[in-house]
Amino acid sequence: MPVLDLDGMRIHYEESGAEQDAAATPSPCPLPKGEGNNGDGAPLSLPSPLRGEGKNGNSSGKPVVVGVHGWGASWKFWRGTMAALEKTHRVVALDLPGFAGSDKPEAPYTIEWFVEVVRRFCDRLGVERATFAGHSMGGMIVSQFALEHPSRVERLILACAPVQGRTAFFWKTRLLLAPVIRWIVYLLSKIHTLRRWLARDFSTRCPLDDDIIRDVGAASYASMFRTLQSLRATDGVPRFNEIRCPALVIGTDRDHLVTPEQFRLAAEHLPGARRVDILNAGHCPMFEAPEEFEGAIRAFLRETAPLTLTSPPAGERGTTDDRGHAPSSLPAVASLLLLALAVSGCATHPVARPSARRIAWREAGIERTISIGGRTVHYLETGEGPVILCLHGLGGSAYDWRAQLEPLAAAGFRVIAPDLLGAGYTDKPAGGPGTYSVASQATLVGQLCDALGVRDAVCLGNSYGGGVSLTLAFGRPECVRALVLCDPVCFRQELPSYVALLRAPVVARPLVRAVPEKIALYQILARIFADDRKIGEEALAEYVHEFALPGTKDALVLMARDLIPPNVGEFEDALPKVKQPALVLWGRQDDIIPLAQGERLVRTLPHARIEVLDPCGHAPNQERPEDVNRLTIEFVKSLPGK
Q: Could you give the strand order of the β-sheet that contains 608-613, starting from the edge strand earlier in sequence?
């Protein structure tokens, strides 16, 4: 089997339909003895990627199909397809690193990392453009590849592929993410008889061949479970309408690994996608129904014209400067409105990927999920000791507390930071009036505390999350030991202009959908921070990514409309009843909720004191994290009784 060396990482692959070019410059790849063509350790001669012959950089001139396998699999899943297409196409299928015969380095094993591996692999083979076919996890990889490198993808084929990680898998697959369970499964996968038993869900119509079963057990522990974590955290659906090449979506009716919802989502959101349902087959239709599977691919390749690009794709053209600034001469609201009018006819905007920090949290098990009242709630948790419960502001998420998690955990606290309803990765129901009110959020947080066995937590809340903290303090006092409030909502006031726009009945939804995410979020963050240089590119990219998640924009509009409840007077009247000690932190330059509100709050709460941070805007936890961490730790450790 040929092997490519990608900067010291050996990738096994197979290809068919390529006519060898005797004049091609060989590219030697030394192999250990027994792994070369002749078994003597001699290097293999591979076609040079630099020769530039033929339509796609291969001497045969045939169009290229690149096959990418799924979790626990290998290139062999494309063996039948390779044979079916070899007369008309050059078909290349690789073993992804971490699986089957390829090297298994210490690596992130995220979808983004695999996309980069596939790019380098194609560069090395001289494949400039191709049809990319992905089975299962491979489908997620090639769809993300199409988003990142649209000019290189002529067609897209997704077979039994997850496209929205949080809804993609049945309970058995989700169970594999549990720390103890995954170790047991990994150890069992090394025993052939047990490996065959574990692999029975791959195919419902016929058992897998022994050589396929062996490949299932060849993956490393890191590649097996980091990929699952990344799959669960990846959602391609929000950007699928950016993919302009012809697409084929193949699904089955007996897939026990990937939910049928995924095929519907892919077919609905990929523009003009062709959907083929193969009946009486499970997760591996290429083995269970090969004639139907290969026939669908042959017909798709024959009947669809490849994507032809005459100009750079929209996703590859920048619309802002390096930091995403809008024209500085316009006020924030005016620029948002003008941008909405300017781009309202555009279908899509570039969307950032999850930040490296977010990916690291997932790999470390800090990011978790729990079902509360039938709704999935995402939260971050780290550390041991007394609980500090961090509640974010309107339009934010648990990511708001990125600078608090490790320092507070290192100081001896168990830190829990949920995505509130409608935010981050937590569910975003349509709901009626009151669904996203401060009171409803406080109820959800109280239920989360019950589920996690939390009592006597210190609530650390910012803005909207501060209002939730106060509501929890007088509504569920047993859950709240003390309060640290960063510029919380507390009294009636004139709303910030961007919140007023979000509450506007006619323009809110079109506006929030039309404005490019990066520009809109920078405008808002620049209003929240006293010094916009402290926003940071990573934070901006992460918020752009979260803002593009399904349902987020609609939920933000609903959240803004519920911000001031009809019974707001009752909330204000309840503030003097908050008996817990409170530390109020306020940014002197906060022009969202002015300092005068904080001074009034301290006079209203029975046991409160205030610390004013200068210079600082509306989010001290993000703009002055060292001060917030120090003051929080000192305050909590000074509390009596613990």
A: 367-372, 375-382, 414-418, 387-391, 457-462, 480-486, 582-587, 608-613
pLDDT bucket at 426, cuts 50 / 70 / 90: very high
Q: What is the C-alpha separation between 539 and 116, in angstroms, rounded?
A: 22
Tell me the per-residue pLDDT of 545-556, one tens digit each, with 9 for 90 and over: 898 888 888 888
In sequence order, the 6+-apart residues with CB closer than 8 A to the CB of 300 are: 155, 157, 246, 248, 274
Q: What is the residue whose two structure tokens read 């205030």? A: 610
Is the predicted pLDDT of residue 349 greater than 60, yes or no? no
| 165, HSE (Cβ side, Cα atoms, 13 Å) | 21
> Residues 6 or more apart from 288 whose CB is under 8 A from it?
203, 204, 205, 206, 252, 278, 280, 281, 282
CB 290 within 8 A of CB 264: no
Q: How far is CA 348 from CA 103, 244, 307, 512, 516, in A?
A: 38, 11, 18, 13, 8
Contact (Cβ atoms closer than 8 angstroms) between residue 527 and residue 332: yes
Beta bridge mates, 14? 93
Mean pLDDT for the chain? 80
Distance CA 426, CA 237 (A): 16
Yes or no: say if 164 and 237 are a contact pair by the CB < 8 Å rule. yes
Q: How far apart are CA 183 and CA 124, in angstroms?
A: 35
- Confirm if 528 and 592 have CB atoms less than 8 A apart: yes
Which of 16-20, 41-45, 366-370, 506-510 has the highest mean predicted lDDT (pLDDT)?
366-370
Listed residue (587, 579, 569) closest to 604, CA to CA:
579
Yes or no: say if 622 and 633 are a contact pair by the CB < 8 Å rule.
Answer: no
Please tell me what DSSP assigns to residue 388: E
Spatial contact of 539 and 622, defined as CB atoms under 8 Å apart: yes
Which tokens go with 567? 């019974």
DSSP code of residue 208 = P
Return the DSSP state at 567: T
Order of strands, sheet of 9-16, starting from the edge strand that comes earlier in the sequence = 3-6, 9-16, 90-94, 64-68, 130-135, 153-159, 247-252, 274-278
Stated as kind and residue range, the H or E segment containing 511 is helix 508-514
Task: Please list the helix, strand and coil fractions of the chain in percent, rounded to the nearest 5, in that order.
Answer: 45, 15, 40
What's the rounded mean pLDDT across residues 336-343? 39
pLDDT (0 to 100) of residue 92: 96
What angle in degrees, to the nearest 10, is found between the helix axes of 221-233 and 179-188?
Answer: 130
Nearest alpha-carbon partner for 146 in 276, 274, 242: 242
Q: What does the DSSP assignment read for 146-203?
A: HHH-GGGEEEEEEES--SBGGGSB-HHHHHTTSHHHHHHHHHHTTSHHHHHHHGGGG-
C-alpha 358/C-alpha 1 separation (Å) is: 38
For 66-80, 332-346, 352-366, which range has the lowest pLDDT when averaged over its residues? 332-346
pTM above 0.70, yes or no: no
- pLDDT for residue 249: 95
Give the model confidence (pLDDT) of 433-461 as tens digits. 889 999 999 999 999 999 999 999 999 99
Establish whether the linkage from the previous residue to 615 is cis, with ω within 30° of 0: yes
Phi and psi, residue 479, nearest 5°: -85, -20
CA-to-CA dists, residue 176 to 88, 225, 316, 560, angstroms: 40, 8, 37, 38
Both structure tokens of 370: 């729990």
| Pick from 521, 522, 147, 152: nearest CA to 314 | 147
Contact 522, 322 (CB under 8 A): no
Identify the three-state secondary structure at position 621: helix
Average pLDDT rounded to a whole number, residues 311-315: 39
% of the chain with per-residue pLDDT over 90: 48
